[in-house]
Task: structure prediction
Amino acid sequence: MGRNIPYDIKYYIFSQDKSFELESGKKFGPITVAYETYGTLNEQKNNAILLIHALTGDTHVTSDYDKDDKTPGWWDTAVGKGKAIDTEKYFVICSNCFAGCMGTTGPASTNPDTDKPYGLEFPLTTVRDMVSVQKQLIDFLGIKKLKCIMGGSLGGMQVLEWSVLYPQMLESAIVIASAYKTSPQIIAFGEVGRNAIMADPNFKNGNYYDGAPPEKGLAIARMAAHITYLSRDSMEAKFGRDIKKDLKESDEMYGFFGPMFQVESYLRYQGRKFVQRFDANSYLYITKAMDLYDVTSGKNNLTEVINKVQCRMLVISFESDWHFRPSESWEIVKAMMNKGKEISYVNINSPYGHDAFLIKNVEMEKVISSFINTKRDK
Amino acid sequence: MGRNIPYDIKYYIFSQDKSFELESGKKFGPITVAYETYGTLNEQKNNAILLIHALTGDTHVTSDYDKDDKTPGWWDTAVGKGKAIDTEKYFVICSNCFAGCMGTTGPASTNPDTDKPYGLEFPLTTVRDMVSVQKQLIDFLGIKKLKCIMGGSLGGMQVLEWSVLYPQMLESAIVIASAYKTSPQIIAFGEVGRNAIMADPNFKNGNYYDGAPPEKGLAIARMAAHITYLSRDSMEAKFGRDIKKDLKESDEMYGFFGPMFQVESYLRYQGRKFVQRFDANSYLYITKAMDLYDVTSGKNNLTEVINKVQCRMLVISFESDWHFRPSESWEIVKAMMNKGKEISYVNINSPYGHDAFLIKNVEMEKVISSFINTKRDK
Result:
């Protein structure tokens, strides 16, 4: 919250004045929503793009506005002045998701009823809840229709949910490396991670805020998930079976279970780095929201649900993504086609697996920029 | 060790009388080796088949010999009287691997120097060490040449290692669902599991034998690994997004992080079941042995190493296996072909992923039985 805000980055806290209804039917709130904006909202308020971050992302999309910013934004490559998502033309908004830990109300926030952090008293959260919170923010900003909404992975699920929940508010939508529901394989990885967190003795049923957090469990959860973000081939290319260089084979290779292969050391590093920036309870809630997501709410009538979409849509997948596979993107595309909706689909041949959308990719950027800037006679 | 042994199953402990040299150069032992045999060794001692169990297997291959046996063998489907690996013709041997916890010396065994369990004082173990212990057993049984050696997964790696280390002792070899080295992706999963075990406060640096074992950590390790044994499609077919039936959506679905999807409940069950039969330290040592395995010892000269093989070989892979992929079996086959070795290769179109070789599969059984029974003029 103490971010040093340069003149044209805007980091805001939007606080509601009343409670709202969750998908479960429960009333909750009022809450606060953290968001950043880049560029300028024009007078007609018709140049706004809502970017939705992925599982563990935050509001900080680009460091393009601050030369001294030591924290790169999560989409520096694609968002900024003159970039694919051009902040000189568009007003880009990114809010931290509901149940998150980067400024928006989540399990680490203070429960006004107890004056203590919610912990597991926080209500179970769904993708729809995340979307309905974003909707309140967009209403607050006075924006009637978004020029575009886009996001990758869990962000893409939120885009899809927006498209069927508030179709009249969207001019266009981009769903990247995502799916209309989470596969049992990915649910299984989520469950491994949640079990690792809950098995950590520091977890204390979620009430760890006055002591040491369950860092070991959270790091293991991240390690397991991280494997699913990389492709087999990119791991092969990046690490192969290389041995960590500062180990001497003679003494350390045969004698303990510390990191030995580069890939092991890398994973541990990812785990350690993650626990510095993320709250374990938020991780539980947000992964669960992803696993629960099914745009059809278990009814398997995708084509009928997709029929609610009113805007043109671009779906992007990556050939080597096995977290959300191209075939899962294709399901969405097929449903759109079946209903004669305006749909574009690109499957990009990147080797970088699920993380591909966060890595500089000229083809993806061209496709996105061309899609956003398409002019239509209505 | 207290198994009730019926007349024609033989569960033995073979104890060495001297130490032996590990791949690391360290002297270790004497050790004991647990093994079972099925069928009868003929006078010429030329009808012996050595079966090598996978990562967490044991000596108990088939319950075919005991109608009261409540513990099915790990390869009941393929091994027994009149089955693909016919114990009326062949003398089948299966020993528990070195560093295991099913009768053969491992980290839970007593260290004679301290009168306490070895724990992490146990020497780091390699696939070659496992093979050299099996070799001592085969020598002890007076068998000069094995009719066949076969195994799946880590067992297949041991078959490969046998084939290049003691080529003159093999008449034929079958490598099932395996690889000549472990990929970084699978090393990464191994590292997640090892970290989960070591993060468990009960682990106590491996010295947990006089207290509660690190069951939570071991269960998480098993859960993560288990996902890699199933194919995406078989998980989809078996679980889909089915909800566990004894939960009521109204109260439990939105309120806690217990199992909810069938796949979550199944994984937790697999974890719980596993910790009842397996030692966490053994798991560390055996997974590490698998991750360390590379038949070329990092020299990447597979064709040259394969040139040591003197027997005919059958390689079997499964189309949906992503733990050890068909392409990894194909590497072995290519190297054999490059050297003009006698090689058969079958890629079986099973949907069951890596675990396919443990599931009844008529095609696999026919291929194996036909391969073993092939007669040659020498």
In short: The domain at 10-183+295-372 of chain B is CATH 3.40.50.1820 (Rossmann fold). Chain B touches chain A through 55 residues (CB under 8 Å).
